[in-house]
Specification:
This protein is an alpha+beta fold. It is built from ten helices and 15 strands. The protein has a single domain, classed as Double-stranded beta-helix (4-Layer Sandwich). It binds fe (ii) ion (FE2). Fe (ii) ion binds next to loops.
Length: 365
């Protein structure tokens, strides 16, 4: 942190670094991103739509042990399954499972980086420059809460990967190559569940809003803290605060503390209070949360359209390095006719009851 611009401006009164507004930070002012902003694209049809068997028998024949970690989110597939060996049909069913369960975990995978890229190309267009189709995730033991005293981006908080893009990623896969024995866990939280946990009037209020997903704070922080990048100018994108998942058809909260700075339709003070509440809501949703303790060779595949994630801050010993691949998703949309996960469950239960009753009525005496 020593090279942060704020450290060069120490207050004579408090002896504490003075946080500079980006306009007055010479490092930020001097940076010219080499690439233009991205344009909207139409990604290929989500592979989960190609999974025609709701029981996912092809996938579960390879993974003979399936454990749901919580009711709301997270499933582990075991029993000899190797992602590197899955057929196109099995990968399609995996996409469908990830869209439903939010995140799916595998242990002891034999995938290498070219294999991971090959597998992930099945799911769409990789969200990287063609010359580098993956991102190396290096562990940071810097305390994000300390960095936040002088930088504006809450990089250690819950987020959906690059949710500020016009086409934010749908699926991400992280494979761990090096990891400490303890520390560096990742947590995910279900945006289906977070939406359901709100009251009906609050749901209706959010249904009509747009969240401002921005890369500006990340942009400023990266330049000052890391000293390299970013490749593209910062953008603010207005995405629906509640989005409809294209595969499951379910509503999901589409707000995250990592990239969302407000609501387009609200006044700033109103907006700030909603963000405060939603940060509390996200951080207190233990029933919609799952935490994974990594080992080398583990893989997690998640859906950024219905989950948020964060690495748990900490000061672990040793290296932490993983390879992440992501694919572009659709431009987020809100379909007012879509339903929440609980609403669907209730509707299906009711339908079953009606069926059972009408079945009884039809049974001859
Ligand atoms: Fe992430």
């Amino acid at each position: 942190m020593a090279h942060l611009q704020s450290n060069k401006h120490i207050s004579p009164d408090s002896q504490t670094p003075i946080t500079l507004h980006p306009l007055f930070n010479p490092k930020i002012a001097a940076h010219t991103p080499p690439e233009p902003p991205r344009k909207e694209l139409t990604p290929p049809r989500d592979r989960a739509f190609f999974a025609t068997d709701p029981e996912k028998r092809a996938l579960f024949s390879a993974a003979t042990k399936r454990t749901d970690l919580t009711e709301s989110i997270g499933t582990v597939l075991e029993g000899g399954v190797q992602i590197s060996q899955l057929s196109a049909e099995q990968l399609d069913e995996l996409a469908a499972l990830v869209a439903e369960r939010g995140v799916v975990f595998f242990r002891g995978q034999d995938l290498d980086t070219p294999g991971q890229v090959r597998v992930f190309e099945h799911f769409g267009i990789l969200d990287r420059h063609p010359a580098q189709k993956f991102v190396t995730i290096n562990g940071s033991r810097e305390d994000h809460r300390e960095i936040l005293k002088y930088t504006p981006w809450p990089s250690g908080d819950f987020h959906a990967d690059t949710s500020f893009e016009i086409n934010p990623p749908s699926y991400s896969l992280l494979r761990m190559e090096e990891h400490p024995d303890v520390g560096g866990d990742t947590a995910w939280v279900s945006q289906y569940g977070l939406y359901d946990a709100l009251s009906d009037p609050y749901k209706k209020f959010l249904d009509g809003l747009h969240a401002v997903h921005t890369s500006r704070l990340q942009y400023d922080t990266i330049i000052d803290l890391w000293g390299v990048g970013p490749n593209r100018p910062p953008i603010d994108t207005h995405h629906p605060a509640v989005r409809t998942h294209p595969v499951t058809g379910l509503k999901a909260l589409n707000v995250n503390p990592g990239f969302v700075t407000g609501f387009a339709e609200l006044k700033k003070v109103e907006s700030d209070k909603q963000l405060d509440f939603l940060a509390y809501h996200i951080h207190s949703a233990d029933d919609h949360y799952v935490r994974w303790k990594w080992a080398v060779g583990d893989v997690a595949m998640w859906d950024n359209r219905c989950t948020l994630h964060r690495v748990i801050p900490g000061t672990y010993e040793g290296a932490r390095r993983g390879i992440r691949t992501t694919v572009f998703g659709e431009k987020p949309y809100f379909d007012s006719a879509s339903e929440s996960r609980n609403e669907r469950k209730l509707r299906e239960k009711k339908a079953e009851k009606v069926k059972a009753v009408s079945g009884e009525a039809e049974t001859p005496a």
